[in-house]
Amino acid sequence: MKQFKGFAVAVLMVLAIFASMVPVSAVDDDDSLAIRGPVYSNDTGFEELFTDLGVTELVMDSSNFAGFYYDLDKDIETENLTINQSGTTDCEDRTIGEKCLVYETQIASVDYEFTDPQGWDDDQGWDNYSVIGLFAEKYIPIKSDDASKLSKLLIDDDTKTTLRIGDQLDIGNGYTISANQIDTEGNKVWLEFSKDGQAIDDEIITMPESGSNGATWECQVDDVLGEDNVVVLMVHVDSVFQGVEDSICQIEGVWAMDYENAMEVDSDDEFGVLDSVTVSGDTITAENKDDLTLDADSTVDIYEDLSFEVSENDFRFYLQKEYTEAGTYEIRGEVVEDLSGSKTWDNTNFAGFYYELDDNVETEELTIDDISGDTIAEKGIDYETTIASVDYKYSGWAEQYDVIGFLAEKYVPVYDKDESANAENLAKLLTDTDDKFTVRIGDSIDLGNGYELTATQIDVDGNKVWLEYSKDGELIDDEIVDLKDKSEGEDFTCEVDGIAGVDDVVVLVAHVDSVFQGTEDGVCQIEGIWAMDYDNVLEISDDDEYGVFDDVTVSGSTITMTNKDEITLNADSVEEITDRISFRVANDNDNVRFYPFVEMTVGNGVPEEPVEDEEPVEDNEPVENEEPVEDEEPVNEDDVSTEEPVDDGAQEPVTDDEPAVEEPVTEEPADDEKKPIPGFEAVFAIGGLLAIAFLVRRS
After folding, report:
1. CATH label of the domain that carries residue 203
2. 259-294: pLDDT as tens digits
3. pLDDT confidence band for 626 (50 / 70 / 90)
4. 3-class state of residue 584 by DSSP
5. How far apart are CA 95 and CA 278, in angstroms?
6. Are residues 210 and 176 in the same domain?
7. Is residue 178 a part of any domain in this protein?
8. In the structure, what pLDDT confidence band is assigned to residue 692 with cuts at 50, 70 and 90?
9. Are 567 and 594 in contact (CB under 8 A)?
């Protein structure tokens, strides 16, 4: 029993060690992205807002909200969300009255991507199909003029793909196209359309006479939400080839819908707060039955990922669409067509630029002031950004800090705290939070990019805490924070010298709210952390170039840039302005239509594949290549006591000459192999090793 108690104590010690090693996260992982619409602002409420703007409604559509569906090539939008001044009840103060919030979307037609096939004359491909945006998602009507039955689009692509016999083309969500066989003459190909390995339909495609432009297979399915003869897949086979060694077909043009997950919309539905729904032919309308109040410092949900974000100061809000699924998303600015004169994009019409809602702070502008047709002249496009000040998230710090948006990213200027801010040196902000963290002795708060704030020790009186600030395990600074007779806590301010030639730079501020030393645990509470990534400073000078901007000027708190060379906006192209900002140009030879955009990533940028249910193996189906299972030898209990343990790095079995409890030996991994501890798996593993040693010892 004494030995068992000894091992139990050892396990508890290991648990304590691992618990102290788990870092507390203080920064957001890039696990979501919010795209904002136009900002509406007033001191008091809706009555004054409508009066100030001289309007009776606020309209949010694809022209000013990048979250809604938009087709650039054909300049097609379908959705809008409107706040009317009057509905069943009026908009008053911060409240949107009953039926004052109206959402509407209508079916439109767009071209297939397979419109101008490679090597063909223009307009020789497919014509067009119906689409509808529904709450910022693109859908396909099951019937072209009926908005009540909708399906998601799987693929609309004109890329040429070569399939060998047996190859599969994955078109998403479990749907595939397979090339099963090609005839000996090389004139026919047998294609199969499947979902999760189950055949939906197949077709033998016969190629027309030589010199033709291939053949298209339209796959039709019955009983899609009660509708028959629904075209769910279109595949254009460009050519078929039967060789001596290889048989291939080339596909150019694929379109498909996810018909198995089609949805039906009717008047009994509710879309969040929009609980009065009408479906009339090709149009869906939804209104709010109840008042909706935009309280200060709140997020007011509308439906799913669509909401209003409201500031904590004054009456200021915007519509936003939040994305949480891993992937890379395009955030566009306002669309312009056949631009003449000048055009400026700032935070009001380009959601990619930095903006702070609570303080109503913007810093960036992009202006085209000299364009002719599709050509922006030398020095015809300008970019400017200026340092501004915003409040800390932690309200206990009365002062503000300086920020600057630079090429659609948020930075903080690096400068001597006793001097005025300048834009010559910029660093990314690691965190600005007012969250409260309870930190035990040995715990670390992970600030991101290798920076950590650690509570090293607390004095016996529970008045002082010794904090260490480090990067990648290397100490930056430490301080003993004394809270004796300080009821409101105390700050740990870390200053560093020699950052891009600048001294006395404040790189971290952490507010220690309280310290506690108990009989078993010592803890401190930290509420309010601000930190910059000073180890990766962006130094900006007049000799720099950023994409097309090769004429850069830094003047105090302002950065200005312009282009020395002409920029041509070619049809159906993406023209890179910097490595962050680009123009997307429509595939339209008659009009020059384009918008600026940036791409932002959620998670690792790779969407997760859905986990498919495994097919059960039928008892009467033979399993190929399965080795017969030999009868296992019976286990002799007497053999257990003499069995040698596997030498896998675990501790040796305890002998009579050794103490009952032996500290486990752990190797320190190399720096590049260190990873965050995901949980208690390692703890259970070590506990299991200790238990094995105990059993061996008892035997």
Report:
1. 2.60.98.40
2. 999 999 998 899 999 999 999 999 999 999 999 999
3. very low
4. strand
5. 24
6. yes
7. yes
8. low
9. no
DSSP 8-class letter at 9: H
**Joined tokens for residue 352:** 């990619």
State the residue range of the domain holding 60: 33-100+288-323
- Model confidence at 23: pLDDT above 60: no
Q: Return the residue matching tokens 């950052």.
A: 499
548 inside domain = yes
**Beta strands per DSSP E along 243-363:** 247-257, 263-264, 276-280, 283-287, 292-293, 298-303, 306-310, 315-323, 327-332, 336-337, 343-345, 355-356, 361-362
Is residue 624, in this structure, part of any structural domain at all?
no
For the chain, give the percent of residues with pLDDT over 90: 70
* C-alpha–C-alpha distance, residues 161 and 179, integer Å: 12
3-state secondary structure of 485: coil
Q: Is this structure's pTM higher than 0.85? A: no
Q: Is the same domain home to 14 and 112?
A: no
Helix (H, G, I), strand (E, B) or coil at 693: helix
Both tokens of 192, joined, read: 């199969």
Alpha helices in 22-102 (DSSP H): 46-53
Q: Is there a contact between 147 and 264 (Cβ–Cβ < 8 Å)?
A: no
Retrieve residue 165's tokens: 């016999």
For residue 607, being part of any structural domain is answered with no
Q: For residue 436, list its beta bridge partners.
A: 527
In this predicted structure, the answer to whether residue 8 has a pLDDT above a threshold of 90 is no
Please tell me whether residues 233 and 300 are part of one structural domain.
Answer: no
Place of tokens 């850069």: 552
What distance in Å separates the CA atoms of residue 19 and residue 8, rounded to the nearest whole number?
A: 16
Is the predicted pLDDT of residue 675 greater than 80, yes or no? no
- Do residues 381 and 437 both lie within one domain? no
Res 80 pLDDT > 70: yes
Q: Are 53 and 38 in contact (CB under 8 A)?
A: no
| Strands 444-448 and 24-25, bridge-based pairing | parallel
CATH number for position 373: 2.60.40.4190
Q: What is the pLDDT of residue 184?
A: 84
Q: For residue 659, count other CB atoms closer than 10 A to its CB.
A: 9
Two tokens, residue 158: 């004109």
d(CA 372, CA 381): 12
Q: Using one digit for the tens of pLDDT, what is the confidence trace for 531-576?
A: 999 999 999 998 899 999 999 999 999 999 999 999 999 999 999 9
| pLDDT higher than threshold 80 for residue 611 | no
Distance of CA 284 to the CA centre of its chain: 29
Specify whether 591 is located in the same domain as 641: no
Whether 115 and 230 share a structural domain: yes
Q: How many domains are contained in the chain?
A: 5
User: What pairing do the DSSP bridges indicate for beta strands 400-405 and 364-368?
Assistant: unpaired
Q: Are residues 8 and 67 in the same domain?
A: no
pLDDT, tens only, 138-186: 999 999 999 999 999 999 999 999 999 999 999 999 999 999 999 888 8
Q: Which residues share a beta bridge with 278?
A: 285
- The crossing angle, in degrees rounded to 10, of helices 681-698 and 2-21 is 160
Token representation of residue 464: 């002082």
CA distance 581 to 673: 35
Residues 207, 292, single domain; the answer is no
Tokens (6 digits) for 327: 């992937």
Q: Rounded CA gap, 387 and 390, in Å? A: 10
Q: Which amino acid appears at position 659 of this protein?
A: P
